[in-house]
Amino acid sequence: MQNLYLFLSIIRKVDAKEFAEFFLEYGAAPIYSSLCAGAARSETLDMLGLEHSEKVLMQSIVTHNKMYELKHALTHRMKIDLPDRGIALAIPLSSLASKKVLSHIIKDETDENFTPPESYERKIDMELVISVCAKGHSDEIMKAARAAGAAGGTIIKAKGTATHGTDMFFGMAISDEKEITYIVTRKEQRSDIMKAIAGYTYADNAHPIVFSLPVTETAGFRLFD
Fold it and tell me: Which residue in 12, 183, 5, 208 sits closest to 94, CA to CA?
């Protein structure tokens, strides 16, 4: 499944309808959306001309061809590089549950067996650091991450669905309300940020769960760079 990606876009809530129509037009359905909040520090927002606002996380599974088509259109048509417009990133997938799922995803593709050209080398110089913590601790998590070099993050509200007898994990009740924090960072900063987050301890000696995923392509980071 080296040519399939989870394509994530984080945009302002007020722009959600516009971007949803864009993804549908480009055949990137189904789209899964979640409300979230930005967590960039004030000086970073001021530098980029950004505002604190509600965000929407949009997720879709796409092929390699579609991913590059979306990236180009997001940059040149949707102007995602403009201040406070949004960001997008692609995470490579390792497998899918069935051929039926695959056929649904590639129904608009001309070549489901597409292989990148020899000149293409998968670039992994960015990482998506994901942490899961108890409700009310994401601000402290972000403070620890910023001290280690993170510029900002996105916070999503969530709730665990543990079954009976498995409601504790690293001292944290899985069924409690949670906050998931997404932080996109350069690969060389990943370890420091993850260690800083993992070192944060709150009530009852509970620790956040933190892991990272490789990011092969991004859009909307030009001004940040």
Answer: 5
Query: Nearest-CA neighbor of 40 among 182, 216, 135, 179?
Result: 182
Q: How far apart are CA 5 and CA 65, in angstroms?
A: 10
Facing residues of 95 across strands? none
Distance CA 107, CA 103 (A): 6
Given a contact cutoff of 8 angstroms between Cβ atoms, the answer to whether 121 and 2 are in contact is: no
114 contact partners, CB below 8 Å, separation of at least 6: 3, 63, 64, 65
Q: Which residue has the tokens 């079954």?
A: 163
Question: pLDDT value at position 197?
Answer: 94
Judge contact between 182 and 130, C-beta under 8 A: yes
Whole-angstrom distance, CA of residue 20 vs CA of residue 64: 20
pLDDT in tens, 4-60: 899 999 999 999 999 999 999 998 877 889 988 887 655 555 544 445 568 999 999
Q: Is 71 helix (H, G, I), strand (E, B) or coil?
A: helix
Beta carbons within 8 Å of 202's beta carbon, 6+ residues apart: 133, 134, 137, 140
Is the pLDDT at 167 greater than 60, yes or no? Answer: no
Distance CA 139, CA 34 (A): 19
Q: Tell the burial category of 192 from Cβ atoms under 10 Å away from its Cβ (0-12, 13-18, 19+).
A: middle
Quick: pLDDT tens for 49-77: 445 568 999 999 998 889 999 999 999 99
Collapse the DSSP code of 14 into the 3-class scheme (helix H, G, I; strand E, B; otherwise coil) and give the result.
Answer: helix
What is the model's pLDDT at position 168?
57
